[in-house]
């Protein structure tokens, strides 16, 4: 059924922008010290003839999206950029009117073919993984939703009902969602404020004694400095996953630093998430880790809010990695494996009890999987991909509109703050952190909200 708000693509363009890092980020045995943004600008027209431009931006994130022993980071970076450019070219060939959800759903049918074609053309030793395809396509996805709202002079999150969508959720998920639309699973106004999850990378200094060479740019240098300066109450801890003694010691050391600073600030409640980036050999590692923390420091154990993707991302190849016992202790959240609804269903069968939503996998999929996770009563969190500027605001706007999401990750200000400067002037409440929260209520404009 045609809707007056439906849009068609008039023109889309893709550009690559370099990102400068102030400090290296280590996770899952890999280190990132530089990167690039994929930026997509799109002009659309709705059925009433109203034109508008939308914008989408996302880090390439190839080190996370395409870890490989046979494809170099340089090759995966180049391949993902080519993918982004190619999907934009294909989008320019689409002249049909539709809702962005429908447009992206149709474009997604081309992802696999494009990925295979690029890998073959470049002579790569393996095909582009689905996660890398989603990341490379996500700026176009975001730009479509942004332009949709702007063409209809409304916030995009308020254009998700049957008045604007021709198909209900059963067309994209399954029949249990018959008659339901995304307005049921999103908020009409953004949450006023949300706690910010600060990342503690494996190389990040905790105290002054850990600082080998000062950066000297005026930003905090140590974890203690960050907590004191920004009033942080949520810390995401990157762990090794294959070195139990180091992992336990790292959490206890972080808790010692946090406890000292929080005591001075008279803060009595704060939280941790533990991210193993798939490096654990099995669930027994996770259970042993948690029990060791509980034995050595019960308060630190109580502060752990959830565990993130502890074992290999290929769920089908590792069906033995069942999380049921670990999930009895803490919510276990699926992240790298979560590429579609089928993966979500499989993760539930394997004992995962939570979902990490990321706009880097596509705005459309984030909305869909957020709806499914709510229906299934799963723990919800929103994380980013070291997203600066616009890409962070996009991630924050999603978190502010999904019920049940209690906090948002935002580490671009730690590792690549230069990318925040323009947007920090426009939305200081999102980038100048004083009480450990971001002012997501600011993200209530047309388009994606900012």
Structural commentary:
The structure is a single chain. α2 packs across α4, α2 (73-92) runs parallel beside α5 (130-151) and α7 (244-264) crosses α8 (283-296). With 450 residues, the chain is of the alpha/beta class. The protein has 16 helices and 12 strands. Helices cover 38% and strands 19% of the residues. A hairpin with a 4-residue loop joins β2 (30-46) and β3 (51-59). The protein folds into 2 domains: 7-173, 2-Layer Sandwich (Enolase-like, domain 1); 194-442, Enolase-like C-terminal domain (TIM Barrel, Alpha-Beta Barrel), CATH 3.20.20. The mean pLDDT is 97. It has helices at 62-65, 73-92, 100-108, 111-122, 130-151, 223-230, 244-264, 283-296, 298-303, 324-327, 341-349, 363-375, 389-401, 412-415, 421-426, 428-431; strands at 7-27, 30-46, 51-59, 194-200, 234-238, 271-275, 304-308, 332-334, 354-357, 379-382, 408-409, 437-438.
> Which range does the strand content fall in?
15-25%
Number of helices: 16
Average pLDDT figure? 97
Helix/strand structural class:
alpha/beta
Give the radius of gyration: 21 Å
Q: Supply the CATH class of the largest domain.
A: Alpha Beta
Name of the CATH architecture of the largest domain: Alpha-Beta Barrel
Quaternary structure of the protein: single chain
Number of strands: 12
Share of helix, binned: 25-40%
Domain tally: 2
Name the CATH superfamily classification of the largest domain: Enolase-like C-terminal domain
In CATH, the topology of the largest domain is named TIM Barrel
Low-confidence stretches: none
The biggest beta sheet reads: 9 strands, mixed
Succession of helices and strands: EEEHHHHHEHEHEHHEHEHEHEHEHHHE
Distance between the termini: 30 Å
């Amino acid at each position: 059924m045609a809707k007056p708000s439906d849009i068609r693509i008039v023109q889309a363009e893709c550009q690559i922008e370099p990102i400068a890092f102030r400090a290296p980020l280590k996770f899952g045995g890999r280190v990132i010290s530089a990167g690039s943004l994929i930026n997509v600008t799109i002009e659309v027209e709705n059925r009433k003839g109203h034109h508008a431009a939308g914008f989408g931006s996302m880090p390439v994130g190839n080190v996370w999206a395409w870890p490989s022993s046979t494809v170099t980071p340089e090759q995966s970076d180049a391949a993902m950029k080519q993918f982004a450019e190619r999907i934009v070219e294909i989008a320019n060939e689409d002249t049909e009117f539709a809702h962005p959800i429908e447009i992206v759903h149709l474009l997604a049918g081309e992802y696999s073919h494009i990925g295979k074609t690029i890998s073959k053309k470049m002579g790569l030793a393996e095909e582009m993984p689905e996660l890398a395809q989603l990341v490379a396509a996500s700026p176009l996805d975001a730009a479509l939703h942004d332009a949709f709202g702007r063409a209809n002079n409304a916030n995009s999150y308020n254009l998700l009902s049957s008045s604007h969508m021709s198909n209900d959720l059963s067309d994209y998920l399954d029949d249990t969602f018959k008659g339901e639309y995304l307005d049921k699973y999103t908020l009409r106004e953004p949450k006023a404020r949300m706690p910010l999850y600060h990342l503690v990378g494996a190389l990040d200094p905790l105290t002054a004694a850990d600082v080998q060479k000062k950066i000297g740019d005026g930003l905090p240098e140590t974890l203690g400095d960050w907590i004191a300066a920004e009033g942080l109450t949520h810390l995401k801890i990157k762990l090794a996953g294959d070195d139990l003694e180091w992992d336990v010691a790292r959490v206890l050391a972080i808790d010692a630093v946090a406890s000292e600073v929080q005591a001075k600030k008279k803060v009595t409640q704060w939280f941790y998430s533990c991210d193993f980036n798939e490096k654990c050999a099995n669930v027994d590692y996770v259970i042993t880790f948690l029990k060791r923390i509980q034995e050595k420091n019960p308060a630190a154990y109580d502060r752990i809010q959830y565990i993130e993707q502890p074992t290999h991302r290929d769920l089908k190849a590792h069906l033995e990695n069942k999380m049921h016992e670990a999930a009895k202790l803490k919510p276990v959240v699926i992240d790298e494996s979560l590429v579609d609804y089928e993966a979500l269903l499989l993760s539930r069968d394997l004992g995962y009890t939570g979902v990490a939503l990321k706009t880097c996998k596509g705005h459309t999929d984030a909305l869909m999987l957020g709806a499914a996770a709510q229906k299934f009563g799963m723990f919800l969190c929103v994380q980013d991909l070291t997203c600066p500027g616009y890409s962070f605001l996009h991630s924050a706007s999603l978190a502010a509109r999904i019920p049940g999401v209690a906090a948002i990750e935002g580490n671009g200000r730690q590792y690549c703050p230069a990318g925040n400067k323009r947007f920090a002037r426009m939305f200081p409440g999102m980038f100048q952190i004083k009480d450990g929260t971001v002012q997501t209520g600011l993200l209530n404009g047309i388009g994606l909200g900012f």
